[in-house]
Fold:
Amino acid sequence: MSRTIPALTPALRARRFAGAAALTVPALVLGAAAASAHVTVTPDAAEAGSYATLTFKVPNESAEASTTAVKVDLPTDTPFTSVSVEPVPGWTAKVTQAPLPEPVEVHGTTVTEAPASIEWTADDADAGIAPGEFLRFTVSAGAVPDGVEEIALPATQTYSDGEVVAWDQEATGDAEPDLPAPVLQVLPAAEDGGHGTASAAGATHSAADAGADAGTDAGTDAAADDDASGTLPLALGAAGLGLGLVGAVTGVAALARTRATGTGTGTEQR
Structure:
């Protein structure tokens, strides 16, 4: 027995398409969120020879476990000679020094040992990075090595259930790896030998200060002009009022004299 399947009306097709889209969009959003939840470093570029403040953003990608430890490996072939950490409440930071494979010259000094890694450990379970949360870890590192275009800073993330995730893959071509390592781009040093970022910031502040001074002067001049323009009408008004009063007094005096003269004349006629 055959059964005829009724054709879908345009309205029914539209409803079915909308339902499918409603199910597809959340899946795409969740997929994009999972793909973008990487350990990253900010800023992603620093000037060679400068001291950079680097912030590592660590998201928790587990649905059940908390992140209890984070470790960042530093380069030993082009090392940072100095690293200091910003305290994170509930976490203990440790900077490990290590001998370099080969001595390097830094500002005329031969360096044979340098920071090799930074590790943050949660003091207890409550201090860990819970599911759906992230935490920032900030360090000051320098001098930024010269002679390289970028510095890979591999990170290792340890969870409370024992899982360890290594963010250490380098990008090849246009494809992004599943577990990319944070990367710091190295910019050429400023020609004047100073820190370009600091100089730019200083210039910005100077320009802002100059603008503020100019604005203050302009505001003072404008206020003076307003005072002057406001005083002139008041002075003119006061002068006009004074002249009016003088005229009124003069008129009253003249009227009084006229009446007095008229009264005297009438008496003489009688």
